[in-house]
């Protein structure tokens, strides 16, 4: 059993998607970021960066005590290795997926997060920041669109690289983007959105948000 400390944000959805795809048994423990529950001392013991998601694997592969892991990229890599799913085992295929996973956690997520902040949450409008992060969003979308020109998924086969990137693209309208401007990216987006595990993951996220309302 895996305990998932979760809120329905892009980073949170990454983990529910993987767990649904892999068919792992898990239970959601909501961390309401709008009530600052990520700063609670009991949460900080497993999530020292006061960010969710965090998982606690109560049955780790080494047979030891429950194992807590924070940072969504590390969680995805751990779960892929634990299950042997959604990450290639050959050297080149594995590195292909991992470099795009790291591209997402180091670039796509932070830049799109800044786009959200300056366009929707900043207490004052800063035109330079707004332009900068919208332009960087366009660049990153274009990188992904080009990558998908000759393949259905980012690393060839569906993998944790796709699971990491997809939830951030879900919010494309809030980022000032139209998927029609990126035809390869749109095809990829539609393929993932139709996956039953992805549908279930987003339904569970909506249930968490509704219960907290």
Model description:
The chain is α+β, with helices and mostly antiparallel strands and 213 residues long. The protein has 2 domains: 2-86 and 197-212, Glutaredoxin (3-Layer(aba) Sandwich), CATH 3.40.30; 91-195, Glutathione S-transferase Yfyf (Class Pi), Chain A, domain 2 (Up-down Bundle), CATH 1.20.1050.10. It is 56% helix and 8% strand. It has 8 helices and 4 strands, in the order E-H-E-H-E-E-H-H-H-H-H-H. Strands 2-1-3-4 form a 4-stranded mixed sheet, covered by helices on one side. Strand 1 (2-6), helix 1 (10-22) and strand 2 (26-30) form a beta-alpha-beta unit. Helix 1 packs parallel to helix 3 (72-83) and helix 5 packs across helix 7. The longest helix is centred in the middle third of the chain and has 31 residues, at 91-121. The two termini are 27 Å apart. The model has no long low-confidence stretch (mean pLDDT 96).
Which structural traits does this protein have?
single chain, 213 residues, alpha+beta, Glutathione S-transferase Yfyf (Class Pi), Chain A, domain 2, four-stranded mixed beta sheet, 8 helices
């Amino acid at each position: 059993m895996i305990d998932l400390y979760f809120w329905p944000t892009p980073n949170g959805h990454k983990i529910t998607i993987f767990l649904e795809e892999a068919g792992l048994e898990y239970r959601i423990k909501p961390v309401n970021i709008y009530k600052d529950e990520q700063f609670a001392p009991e949460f900080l013991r497993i999530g020292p960066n006061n960010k969710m998601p965090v998982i606690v694997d109560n049955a780790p592969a080494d047979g030891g005590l429950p194992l807590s892991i924070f940072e969504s990229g590390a969680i995805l890599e751990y779960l892929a290795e634990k299950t042997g799913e959604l990450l290639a085992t050959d050297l080149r295929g594995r590195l292909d997926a991992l470099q795009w996973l790291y591209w997402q956690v180091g670039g796509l997520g932070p830049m799109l997060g800044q786009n959200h902040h300056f366009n929707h949450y900043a207490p004052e409008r800063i035109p330079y920041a707004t332009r900068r992060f919208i332009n960087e969003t366009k660049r990153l979308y274009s990188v992904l669109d080009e990558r998908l020109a000759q393949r259905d998924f980012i690393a060839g086969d569906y993998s944790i690289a796709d699971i990491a990137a997809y939830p951030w693209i879900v919010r494309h309208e809030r980022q000032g983007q139209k998927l029609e401007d990126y035809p390869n990216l749109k095809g990829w987006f539609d393929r993932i959105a139709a996956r039953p595990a992805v549908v279930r993951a987003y339904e569970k996220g909506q249930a968490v948000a509704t219960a907290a309302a």
